[in-house]
């Protein structure tokens, strides 16, 4: 894919972060991916947060091999890694290789499949490293190492071998991003349940839905605190094979983060071939991706 990156960056008095959720590569939506890369080129965020389930690893799932999704179970894991690394490189290219950015990778339940498989099938290989490497070096069989995250300037937000569902990125004292571990029916229900459980503002993926829900808490001194729970959506295809007419929403979430830690959230939503975000409209055409405002 050829990516055209916009030169310069619009001036702003805040940091712009984007949460890119649930690609489930190689089952990502390729047309949506092109629009996401154009969005990154157009808006040049200060950081990207991959909020989990970027890699699908279908053949390592407890649900077993699904011939409708995976053609060759013996090559699926390598193919998933190769495609996922390619997506990360294209995100990086669209954002600008030379620009300093704060990028994180939060492991989700799909990333955890690899270590679970090793622990179950070949525990002798768990935590294996190259000879002579120290304790702080990731395992040679970890996704942090296999996806070459360090080369891409992406920080691993899990433990040495993954840490779902505890892994998180704390963007400020007021907001954190997680993959998510709860699932409730209908848009907003999971965000609300997670918000209630944690008692603070949080962004999650996991559900493949989009929502913004709010909760006002009143302190004893009369002050009010408004917390927000958000579901970021999914960048995967709808036809993943395990849901009939799924109630999912494709897209991602954008965070404006101010120096004092306060923030504003907004959703970019992909509907019928068009990606919408705050008056920006991205669409694939015969001439490539067009952007209108």
Defining traits:
20% helix; 14 strands; five-stranded mixed beta sheet; globular; single chain; 293 residues; 5 helices; disordered N terminus; alpha/beta; Purple Acid Phosphatase, chain A, domain 2; 27% strand; nine-stranded mixed beta sheet
Describe the structure.
The protein is of the alpha/beta class. It is 20% helix and 27% strand. It is built from 5 helices and 14 strands. The protein has helices at 30-43, 76-95, 112-121, 143-146, 189-198, and strands at residues 15-20, 47-50, 103-105, 154-156, 168-172, 175-178, 201-204, 210-218, 224-232, 250-257, 263-271, 274-277, 280-285, 288-292. The strands form 2 sheets. A 9-stranded mixed beta sheet has the order 4-3-2-1-10-11-12-13-14, covered by helices on one side. Strands 5-6-7-9-8 form a 5-stranded mixed beta sheet, with helices on one face. A hairpin with a 2-residue loop joins strand 5 (168-172) and strand 6 (175-178). Helix 1 packs parallel to helix 2. It starts with 14 loop residues before the first strand and ends with a strand. The model is unreliable at 2-6 (pLDDT under 50).
Summarize the structure in short.
Helix content is 20%, strand content 27%. It has 293 residues and is α/β, with parallel strands linked by helices.
Mean pLDDT: 91
Instruction: Write down the oligomeric state.
Output: single chain
Query: Number of folding domains?
Result: 1
CATH C-level class is: Alpha Beta
CATH architecture: 4-Layer Sandwich
- What's the overall geometry? globular
Structural class: alpha/beta
Report on the biggest sheet: 9 strands, mixed
Number of helices: 5
Strand fraction equals 25-35%
CATH-defined fold name = Purple Acid Phosphatase, chain A, domain 2
Main-sheet strand order equals 4-3-2-1-10-11-12-13-14
Distance between the termini: 24 Å
Low-confidence stretches: 2-6
Helix content: 10-25%
């Amino acid at each position: 894919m050829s990516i055209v990156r916009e030169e310069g960056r619009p001036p702003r008095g805040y940091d712009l972060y984007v949460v890119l959720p649930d690609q489930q590569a190689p089952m990502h939506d390729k047309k949506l991916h092109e629009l996401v890369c154009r969005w990154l080129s157009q808006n040049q965020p200060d950081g990207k947060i991959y909020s989990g389930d970027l890699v699908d690893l279908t053949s390592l799932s407890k649900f077993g091999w699904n011939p409708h999704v995976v053609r060759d179970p013996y090559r699926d894991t390598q193919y998933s890694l190769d495609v996922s690394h390619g997506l990360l490189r294209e995100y990086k290219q669209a954002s600008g290789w030379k620009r300093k950015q704060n990028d994180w990778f939060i492991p989700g339940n799909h990333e955890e499949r690899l270590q679970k498989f090793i622990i179950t099938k070949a525990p002798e290989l768990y935590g294996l490293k190259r000879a002579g490497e120290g304790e702080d070096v990731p395992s040679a069989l970890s996704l942090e190492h296999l996806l070459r995250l360090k080369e891409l300037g992406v920080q691993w937000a899990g433990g040495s071998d993954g840490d779902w569902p505890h892994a998180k990125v704390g963007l400020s004292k007021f907001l954190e991003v997680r993959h998510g571990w709860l699932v409730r029916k209908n848009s907003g229900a999971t965000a609300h349940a997670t918000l209630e459980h944690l008692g603070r503002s949080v962004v999650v993926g996991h559900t493949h839905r989009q929502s913004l829900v709010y909760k006002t808490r009143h302190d004893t001194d009369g002050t009010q605190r408004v917390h927000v729970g958000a579901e970021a959506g999914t960048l995967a295809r709808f036809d993943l094979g395990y849901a009939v007419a799924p109630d999912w929403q494709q897209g991602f979430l954008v965070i404006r983060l101010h120096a004092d830690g306060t923030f504003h959230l907004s959703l970019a939503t992909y509907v019928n071939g068009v990606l919408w975000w705050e008056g920006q409209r991205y669409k694939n055409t015969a001439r490539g991706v067009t952007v209108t405002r």
